[in-house]
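Ticket #4471: structure export looks truncated?
Reporter: QA, pipeline team
Priority: medium

Steps to reproduce: submit the single chain below to the structure queue and open the exported record.
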Amino acid sequence: MNEEVNRNVYGSLIFCSQCGNLLDDPGSSQSLLCEICGETKNCDQYEGIEILTQSGPNAFPSALRNKKSLVQNDLSKMREEAATIAQTCEKCGAEEMEYHTRQMRSADEGQTIFYNCRRCGYKYSANS
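Actual output as written to the record:
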């Protein structure tokens, strides 16, 4: 690879040597065309370029990861707010369960009560 090509390639990005514009992927074309200054380059001169990249797990935040952390925060908050009740677990027979309430339906209807067994993790809900 020649020195001019080396100066215009940063990672997997190729820039125009005349104006510095980021060049688009040529697709099936055999040449790169700069949309700003019109310079064209033969794609063959960019073949064989080795690209080595390294990133950490949090380098590119995603919407899914953000939602996951929001849900985890909500769950831990619910756990902190959960009260206990003398209610027998249907699965393991534990005599005490955690519960919390949420208004899931319209305001003129009752709340939904969510029960969680601390011992076995069994969960169920009931409308009040």
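Status: closed, not a bug. The export was complete when the record was re-opened. Leaving a note from the reviewer for reference: The first strand starts at residue 9 and ends at 10.
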